[in-house]
Write a structure and sequence with these properties.
Elements (H helix, E strand, L loop, with lengths): L1 H14 L6 H14 L8 E5 L3 E3 L3 H11 L3 E10 L6 H23 L10 E5 L1 E4 L1 E7 L4 H7 L7 H8 L2 H12 L4 E12 L5 H23 L6 E2 L2 E2 H13 L1 H16 L5 H21 L4 H11 L1 H14 L7
Parallel strand pairs: 3-7
Antiparallel strand pairs: 1-4, 2-7, 3-4, 5-6, 8-9
Organism: Coemansia nantahalensis
Keywords: ATP-binding, Helicase, Hydrolase, Nucleotide-binding
Protein name: ATP-dependent RNA helicase
């Protein structure tokens, strides 16, 4: 978040003709020498993690999507696992990354409101042009966005979970809250690869931060009234369902095991089991339709075997450690 704020404050100061700090003045000179551009010419800002490798078509596809629709203020691509065979811990994450993009983010993108542009690789629109090319409307560097994202007011448990855990999700929340009518989209063919945790302790610590950050950011988005749609066909309703779904994950796993045990005892639970099987069958169809790679069915089987860890152990651990803000 600190490195992002350095860039955002610099671009905001240059765009609004504010007084520059010595660092911001040095950045202006560097942009002029290295990129042969002024800060006010830099329309897009790409944010990438240090352990992420960008695909050769990633940036062109993100820029092309931005150019096609001026209403877009942020984009992300598909993040794949770079070290998928390092250990059993990395293996169980391969399909989890796949489905979180091709199912969750793809569905949110239909509504124009991806709720988390991941820090691995995301592109933001710094400003938009309003009619006259010289009239610029700040987006990423809007004063309300920079003020909210740079806030250090962590007096409550909710504020600490927002500001101290998932900076990428919080920045997305701030943008949706400031510009609910603009779009945050997912571009599936913009591919990058990231190094994921290879030990269980690091993975559990990472997911504790992600789960708690997700819960509190979704709580913030539920309060945004101007999101796309109305009633049950609205982005706000989808956010509420996502929030409830995250909250009841442990119960869903316990219920699935109850159904299996009841079926073994001869109880009439064929219909619920059929619906669960249908959910996974539809995922297989999605794999064959999107990637056409049968190997992902193998990764899906590994993910299913690890479902108790994903949907029971990690959420319960995260909920128990709501007051833990360590990294």
């Amino acid at each position: 978040r600190d490195s992002q704020l350095i860039a955002m404050q610099w671009l905001r100061s240059a765009l609004m003709n504010d007084r520059l700090t010595p660092l911001e003045f040095a950045l202006c000179r560097a942009a002029s020498v290295l990129a042969q551009a002024e800060p006010t010419d830099l329309e897009y800002l790409l944010m990438v993690d240090a352990d992420t490798t960008i695909g050769i078509e990633c940036i062109p596809r993100l820029v092309a999507a931005m150019e096609r629709d001026p209403a877009i203020m942020g984009l992300c691509g598909e993040t794949r696992v770079a070290n998928k065979r390092d250990s059993w811990v990395t293996r169980i994450q391969v399909y989890e990354y796949y489905i979180s993009h091709h199912l969750s983010k793809a569905f949110e993108s239909l509504w124009g409101g991806v709720t988390c542009l991941p820090g691995c690789c995301s592109m933001y629109r710094v400003f938009a042009r309003k009619g006259d090319p010289t009239a610029l409307v700040p987006l990423l560097v809007a004063p309300e966005v920079v003020a909210a994202y740079s806030s250090n007011d962590t007096q409550t448990l909710h504020q600490k979970n927002l500001l101290l855990l998932g900076e990428d999700r919080y920045l997305t929340t701030v943008l949706l809250r400031a510009f609910p009518r603009r779009k945050l989209l997912y571009v599936p063919r913009a591919v990058c690869r990231t190094v994921v945790p290879s030990s269980l302790a690091v993975l559990v610590s990472q997911r504790r931060r992600w789960i708690n950050s997700t819960i509190h950011n979704l709580l913030e988005l539920v309060l945004v009234r101007d999101l796309c749609g109305a009633f049950c066909c609205s982005m706000r309703f989808l956010v509420l369902m996502d929030l409830l779904g995250n909250a009841v994950l442990p119960a869903s796993v316990i219920f699935c095991y109850y159904l299996v045990a009841a079926a073994c005892l001869g109880r009439p639970v064929a219909l619920p089991l059929l619906l669960v099987a249908l959910a996974f069958a539809l995922q297989v169809a999605m794999i064959l339709a999107t990637t056409r790679r049968v190997s992902y069915i193998y990764w899906m089987a590994i993910y299913i075997a690890a479902l108790p860890l994903w949907n029971l152990v990690m959420p319960l651990y995260a909920f128990w450690r709501f007051d833990d803000f360590s990294w």
